[in-house]
Amino acid sequence: MATKKYNPITPSLRTRITNSYAEITTNVPEKSLLAPNRRSGGRNQKGEMTMRYIGGGHKKQYRIVDFKRNKFDIPATVKTIEYDPNRSAFIALVVYKDGEKAYIIAPEGIKVGQEIVSGLAVAPEVGNTLPIAKMPLGSVVHNIELQPGKGASICRSAGTFAQLTGKDGKFVTVKLPSGEARMVLGTCLATIGTVSNSDHNLLVKGKAGANRWKGRRPRTRPVVMNPVDHPMGGGEGRASGGHPRSRKGIPSKGYKTRNKNKASSKYIISKKSK
């Protein structure tokens, strides 16, 4: 992926860095794979504001993405690579041999016309989906299931990947982007390769209006609130606000919020490094 810088003809363009979208091949989505994406504006069914700082933004439709990849041994051809406003990664439109169309998360390096396939004994090539136990050690994977048949839930955002580091009985060990090493059932499916749009973290919005396009309204700093509104509010003059914490008083830096009795903790070998 390549980024795009602008000549500083306005203050906002001076620092703005956007995606060049060089990999995108079309700007017209597949109509049969669209669904309504209605927004709440932070209001509940009574019209009362229950979430602050939400509202506005550009209209968008949801792209129905296939996270299960359970059409086994039926080859599919990549027709387009598209932008998806609902996620950081690009998506690819694939057409199966039987004529069915589907969107998938586009791996890095996938090309239009390339053939991909899912199955229990397919080659471990970029874009192919197979049980994680059937992959060679050291494989770079994304779209990892945690429960067989449920669909991918790990490594779906731009530029992310996990690495297969070991096998032990019916489990395999993967190292996740966070640095966490955990066991995953070997029958869970995963896709070979890295998620596309790896330079997403290099983008710079350049102005507050870019957040308004996404439906994010200006956020009030807690230190300028009153004590009744936030634990960090109040004080005479410009008070620092004390230790950073949430509106409900939960510390926001270094405080562990994971339940130590969580059922999945027994599958985690080493905890996150960041």
What report would you give on this structure?
With 274 residues, the chain is mainly β. The chain has a single domain, classed as Nucleic acid-binding proteins (OB fold (Dihydrolipoamide Acetyltransferase, E2P)). It is 4% helix and 24% strand. The chain is built from two helices and 17 strands. The chain has helices spanning 11-15, 209-213, and strands at 3-5, 17-19, 34-35, 62-63, 76-82, 91-96, 101-105, 115-116, 129-131, 140-142, 144-145, 152-154, 162-168, 171-175, 181-185, 189-192, 268-270. The strands form five sheets. Strands 9-16-10-13-14-15-17 form a seven-stranded antiparallel beta sheet, with no helix packed on it. A four-stranded antiparallel beta sheet has the order 7-6-5-8, with no helix packed on it. It has a two-stranded antiparallel sheet with strand order 1-2. Strand 11 (144-145) and strand 12 (152-154) form a beta hairpin. The radius of gyration is 22 Å and the shape is globular. The mean pLDDT is 95.
Key features of this structure:
OB fold (Dihydrolipoamide Acetyltransferase, E2P); mainly beta; 2 helices; 4-stranded antiparallel sheet
Please give the structural blueprint.
Elements: E1 3-5, H1 11-15, E2 17-19, E3 34-35, E4 62-63, E5 76-82, E6 91-96, E7 101-105, E8 115-116, E9 129-131, E10 140-142, E11 144-145, E12 152-154, E13 162-168, E14 171-175, E15 181-185, E16 189-192, H2 209-213, E17 268-270
Antiparallel strand pairs: 1-2, 3-4, 5-6, 5-8, 6-7, 9-16, 10-13, 10-16, 11-12, 13-14, 14-15, 15-17
